[in-house]
Amino acid sequence: MTGSLLTVEQLSVSIATRRGSVAAVRDVSFAVEAGEVVGMVGESGSGKSVTALAVMGILPPAAQITNGRILFLGRELDPIRRRHGQREGLAIIFQNPRAALNPIRPVGRQIVDALRAHAPLSSQQAAAYATELLQRVRVGEPERRFWSYPFELSGGMCQRVMIAIALACRPRLLVADEPTTGLDVTTQKVILDLLAELTAAEGLATILITHDLALAGERCARLVVMQGGRTIECGHTADVLTRPREAYTRALLAATPRAPGKGPASADFATDSSDAHRSKLPLLEIRGLQRHFRLRQTGGLFAQTWARFRRTGAPRPVSVLRAVDDIDLTIGEGESVGLVGESGSGKSTLAGLVVRLIDPTAGRIVFRGNEIGTIPARKFTRSQFRHDIQMVFQDPSGSLDPRLTAFAAISEPIRLLGRLDRARPLAAVVGNLAEMVGLPATLLTRLPHQLSGGEKARVGIARAIALRPSLLVLDEPTAALDVRVQDVVLDLLARLRRDFSMTFLFISHDLAVVRQICDRVLVMRAGKIVDGGASEHLLTAPHHPYTRDLVAAIPRLPSEHRDESAGAAELFRGVFSG
Amino acid sequence: MTTVAPTTVKLRLPPGSGSLILLAIVAVAAAAGPRLAPYDPLATSVSAALQPPSASHWFGTDALGRDILSRVLTAARLDLAIAAAAVGLSFGIGTAAGITAGYAGGWSDRLIGHVTDMIMAFPLFVLAMGIVAAAGDTVANIVYATAIINIPTYVRVGRAEVLIRRDAPFVQSARLAGNGTFRLLLAHVFPNVLPPLVVQASLNMGYAILNAAGLSFIGLGVRPPTPEWGIMVADGASYIVSGEWWVWLFPGLALAGTVFVFNLAGDGLRDFLDPHRRH
Amino acid sequence: MGRVIASRLVGVLGVLASVIVVTFFLTRALPADPAVYFAGMGGTQAAIEAMRAKLGLDHSLIVQFGFYLRDLAHGNLGMSLTTGHSVLSDLMARLPASFELTIVALLLALAVGLPAGIGAALRPDSWFDHLVRVLGTAGVAMPTFFTGLLLLHVFYFDLAWAPPPLGRIGAFIAPPPHVTGFYLIDSLLAGQVQTLIDAVRHIALPALTLALFAVAPIARATRAAMLDALASDFIRTARVIPLSSFRTIVVYAFGNALLPVLTSVGMVFSFLLGANVLVEKVFAWPGIGTYAINALIAADYAPVQGFVLVMAVLYIGLNLAVDLAVIATDPRAAAT
User: Fold this and answer.
1) Per residue in B22-68, pLDDT tens?
2) Chain A residues touching residue B179 (CB < 8 angstroms)
3) How close, in Å, is residue C1 to chain A by CA atoms?
4) How many whole angstroms separate alpha carbon C78 and alpha carbon C71?
5) Can you give the residue ranges of every domain in chain B?
6) Does the domain spanning B21-37+65-277 belong to CATH 3.40.50.620?
7) Inter-chain residue contact C19 with B245, CB threshold 8 Å
8) What domains are there in chain A, each with its CATH number?
9) Strands of A20-32's sheet, edge to edge?
10) How much is the mean pLDDT over chain A?
């Protein structure tokens, strides 16, 4: 451990909360060598981010280091001196890069600020270096982009600017705290590739913090697995991922979504779906579906009228967003169809159209042979089909009324749309549903803010299946959940589908998850469906260039590398880097 | 993660209740005002004119020998009644308009927006002066004027709160569960929108009291000898040069104190109604 | 940016139009008989009839509005019965007094409120923070006229530091030669030090009263905006680089906090212009507020209408200034 670039010895951090002191980090020890890429992996609450903040010396005022020490370049880092800025050689980049940049200052000037904080440069020199840095992080037209504001840049570009700022601090160690979470999967790969290249060129050591085990496996030489503030397992990536010693690590590996054939549930899935696929009765048919949004003009009545008159003579520029642009699709009874796309592809709009929350601009939606697209969304509540098409929402926190208990939330569709049986009182029905989704009955009296993410997700599912819908649309139902909870919820969904013969339209940006739960996949981009096919074929050997890009960007665990024919090169890269 | 239990035991009152209790005290005192008054607020006595505070007259007497304590207590009713009526009116009209504008959108949103902008184009107190001047100098018009200038607050808050909920996932989920528009508004939107509006109403009461008092300070609305805090301060202002400070101080303190209690209560209500605090 | 400014200016025209319509309705469409309104309480029947003809009340409302617009375009706001001059000339003569008072009060309020808010945000939960919060909550509860009387009592009656509340300048001192109408500026320009000192002594208490009214909302808004800015992710970035304290707090944090503060200053103007009227009454300040109050009591309504219109125009102008300041400092506003 001596001679390491960074040594963390038995670090403990506690945070003062309203309910008392909470130990966020407990007795954590690890080391990072010069030039090495170390991954810190764990679920939410594992303490990985707090450890990073402690190393950087920017713990929030409520947090305190209660034990242990941090050695950087052989010297112990004194927390008090650090508060006054002694932080040479360390840099950090965060999740949500746009928020991490000053919104009213041009990005180039922000890089200049960072440069001048570390070296006595004139403003011209600093500006020149800043432009160079922008070029190094592959921002096109760096002289022009110097003057851009964060709101004018995409998420990926903002993260590049953050990397430039980090480089301006001349670090020996770069901490990257979930740097690509929230970015599109193709952007993710590009940013991580850039980081890998830069750190190799500069000889930087990196700590990559992520909840995605596969991602860490691909990019890091060594892994530190954390849970509940403690380090569970430490070691070389290949060892940790192929021969895990601890039960928790094994559980994480098992829960990480990958190719079909993973476990009993999905095995049933595969056989079930292929049988169902043979019955050719289409449950849902969509032809030529379009949904346009007119972009709002700003300004009051007079400004708008003025704008309208000002351009008489010249053709007015059309500002229309084609969220769903001429889509055809068919879903057979009992199928599980996945819909993948990056942000802005229109998949959520399509979901809204299918469940009839939004009205189409053009096209037909046919359900069980009935034309439901023409029934206005406002009136669809009273339609006979309302109970038969339901949706599980993405964000469990936002999709439950904060003032309703879990019981009230689950019973509402039954009370409003169901036929209440005298023989079966409402409490019994709700209790039954709770049991089916694995929600303990004692939690039924709780309000949403008193439930965990996984529990809220179960309430949402119970509410959606309460009336046994034939078609269930799931809009990113597990995106906000930890990987083990996600695994449990996906298994639950598979089981429910089998038990009630439901048809799924599963929408996600996460191809690995879709691969696990769907037998057919459609790929959506900019409002159109660009590719489609059986998930096994499409996602292992894609033909369409866009699909190929998407698939190439999925991080893979080592075992998957061995399973796939084109995996050898990636295997070596992941294991032997650094 | 382990937690360390706090060592002190706190009284289990819901948060924010302290200020609401204060508010209740003020309301009761106002209602009981005339009965608590030791003297007839209208009874004049030339011999006892302009007496400083003493054992017999805790707040002293004014130029006509009337007991100031009794007048302050009696005035509470009138001032609170005017403010309550004005807030009630503006709350009713403003929230209905704001919720409609937020939920229905389209032309109703634009129309209500324009009317609100028209009111907010003026410094509000000045507009109130103009309305009272035009409509006539009566207490009823003080109420209407104060109501009109307060409507935009409720429109803005109502509209903003509805917009947050209208497209929120839980509202969409409620639609899927079978809620028609009416039921959606009643059962899901209102219960989430009303608390911030009620908090606003409490904060607004303070502002309405100040407004009404300001209008009567400059001579509009209430006529002597009716006791009202604003005109009592105005009466007292003529004695600033000669030093009979008690004539204006006590009604002024009553005003400031009442407004302060309403402001505190507004903050207290905000905590009280927050579903996240419920256990 | 040009387009955004242009759309703001067009918006201002719209607001002006609504103001004109509303003031028109204030005198014509409300229950009171407009002719009596303009003839005044002392008007004889003949005067009322003459006024009715002059106002064109026998015509339809649209035509009356046309007359009203024509009058406005000529700067004709009617005649004051109490002073005998045109309302416009009366208002113009008294406007500098009110404006000077408001500006001085605003500057004072900003000078105290901004640092107080920033200081409170930088030291959360300190005694200073609690003090600022308490004063902020208590400050908005005090009626302006009450504060004015309190200050007068302490500083004039008890301590005799302040002059008697009888106007802008001592009874025996001549006002400075008229350049702007602002006594403080004019006496400075003319080099009349004694006059300047006297003017300052007279404006001190009323400006302080008005400033106290505005300090509370400004301090509260600044504190809230600074707390938000300091808690944001980009300040975390600034701290981690690390940027100097000055740059982090002043340039990064306050630069972003300025935007919501500017917006709340716009709202503070509404209160300030209203409170101006009350302060003028307490201190017998010869501004347009006193003018309007006297006219109101004397049932002389044309000045009141003119006063409302001028105040509204002033308010629109101040809000436009705030809007333009926001556009100048916030690139996001300049781009929409």
Assistant:
1) 888 778 877 777 777 777 878 777 777 888 888 888 888 888 888 88
2) 381, 412, 416
3) 14
4) 8
5) 21-37+65-277
6) no
7) no
8) 269-280+328-556 (3.40.50.300)
9) A20-32, A6-17, A63-72, A75-76
10) 84
